[in-house]
Design brief:
Elements lengths: L1 H7 L21 H11 L5 E4 L2 H4 L3 H14 L3 E4 L4 E2 L8 H28 L12 E4 L2 E7 L1 H15 L4 H10 L5 H7 L13 H4 L4 H8 L8 E3 L2 E3 L7 E3 L6 E3 L9 H13 L16 E3 L7 E7 L2 E7 L1 H5 L9 E3 H15 L12 H7 L3 E8 L2 E8 L14 E4 L1
Parallel strand pairs: 1-2, 10-14
Antiparallel strand pairs: 2-3, 4-5, 6-9, 7-8, 11-12, 12-13, 14-15, 15-16
Helix pairs in contact: 4-5, 6-11, 7-10
């Protein structure tokens, strides 16, 4: 159809851009990005699609490209079936068509969510990934069967937990036995989504973490129960997910063969509950979840040091402390010093004329900082600290201003 249109109008075809299998709500589609690159290089002065929905279904972003980006780059845009041609002024219907395309995507998303919810209540496995210890039943795409190799590891984990081994001790035991982590196990089984884990070093492929052990020990899937709705999509546009509280999970009992018996599972839950620790301090960490070691990229932990009736709050790389040969030595940094550096960076990044609110709030700080990689190198009395802010401070700022770096 598009070729025929070009032939009928004596238009030369420079290239084809096809994004089959990608949602029109996603503007990070590979070939769409390639199209933008070609436009930036001046290779393209005309873009043709079958209709507006083929350009995109997000009415805001689609309108941006048709009304702002394409005209700015002197690119003509034609949507054949919708009668849209930016060379003419007869395009008043375009915004309404974009809204209808967006509403269609929202309706489809709602129907898919409802259908998945019903399948979950029926005890079907609806996730694209199978839990460690199981694999998809070749005779029933919505069922699970035991993966014997991984199931033996799961049983070992529960046995060690019954011996009241700590999470880190269990992780160390599995690591010492060179047992592949769940992601590596899936990659070796042929799951291409985990192929990148096979590129890691041999040591990394068998290095277990306590959080992985904790997730396995608390998962009722090993009792033979189907567990769904552990997360949900925040918006049909972004596809980002958020965790669902445990009490809202959809659990249907006795849907597949169990790996762990109920008595063992309950004993382990009791042990885990006994280890639950109340919050050791009331310090309000405004940078919670935002600080990572620059060397090993592991999250840094907040610690409060008591010395001669003086409390010092620091961020510390626990992973580097436990694995000194794998982390190049970025050990800790005072909380107050880091906090002030972050505030200074945010203030310097604000548009001209805009000032920091007074007083500052935790939500404001966290809103403007997506992730911070912090490291410290000491040379005598000199300290060189680098902060990288990867999230834009204001939508008005141009993309080429990111990321920001600040050296002290």
């Amino acid at each position: 159809m598009l070729e025929q249109f070009c032939n009928d109008n004596n238009l030369s075809i420079v290239d084809y851009y096809i994004d089959d299998g990608f949602s029109g709500l996603n503007f990070d589609r590979p070939d769409f990005l390639r199209l933008l690159d070609d436009i930036e290089e001046g290779k393209i002065d005309l873009v043709i699609t079958k209709d507006l929905s083929r350009l995109g279904r997000d009415y805001i972003m689609t309108g941006y490209f048709t009304d702002i980006y394409f005209p700015k780059k002197s690119v003509r845009y034609i949507a054949i079936n919708d009668g849209i041609d930016t060379k003419t002024d007869n395009n008043d219907i375009a915004p309404f068509k974009n809204i209808m395309n967006d509403m269609y995507a929202k309706d489809i998303s709602r129907k898919i969510k409802t259908a998945k919810r019903q399948r979950a209540y029926q005890g079907m496995h609806i996730s694209s990934q199978t839990p460690y210890g199981y694999m998809k039943d070749p005779q029933n795409a919505s069922g699970l069967i035991i993966d014997n190799e991984a199931a033996s590891v799961v049983r070992m984990i529960f046995d060690l937990a019954l011996e009241e081994k700590t999470l880190s001790a269990i992780a160390s035991a599995l690591t010492e036995q060179n047992i592949p982590t769940p992601s590596v196990h899936k990659a070796r089984a042929g799951d291409t989504r985990y192929a990148a884990y096979l590129e890691k070093s041999a040591d990394e492929q068998v290095r277990w973490k306590g959080i992985t052990i904790d997730l396995i020990l608390r998962n009722p899937i090993y009792l033979g129960h189907m567990v769904n709705h552990k997360s949900e999509v925040i918006s049909y546009k972004t596809k980002e997910k958020k965790s669902v509280p445990r009490e809202e999970w959809i659990i249907v009992k006795d849907m597949h063969e169990p790996i762990i018996d109920p008595e063992t599972f309950e004993k382990v839950q009791a042990i885990l509950q006994m280890r639950f620790r109340v919050r050791r301090h009331e310090f309000d960490n405004w940078l919670q979840g935002k600080v990572f070691c620059e060397s090993c990229k592991q999250p840094m932990s907040l610690q409060i040091k008591d010395y001669k009736d003086t409390k010092t709050v620091i961020f510390r790389c626990i992973y580097g402390y436990k694995h000194p040969t794998e982390c190049s030595g970025y050990r800790s940094i005072p909380y107050n010093r880091l906090y002030q550096m972050v505030v200074n960076q945010i203030a310097a990044s604000l548009p001209e004329g805009e000032a920091l609110p007074n007083p500052l709030s935790k939500s404001y700080i966290q809103k403007h900082v997506d992730s911070i990689f912090i490291g410290k190198r000491q040379s005598g009395d000199h300290q060189d600290v680098q902060i990288e802010l990867t999230n834009p401070i204001s939508g008005k700022r141009r993309k080429e201003h990111l990321p920001w770096f600040l050296n002290y």
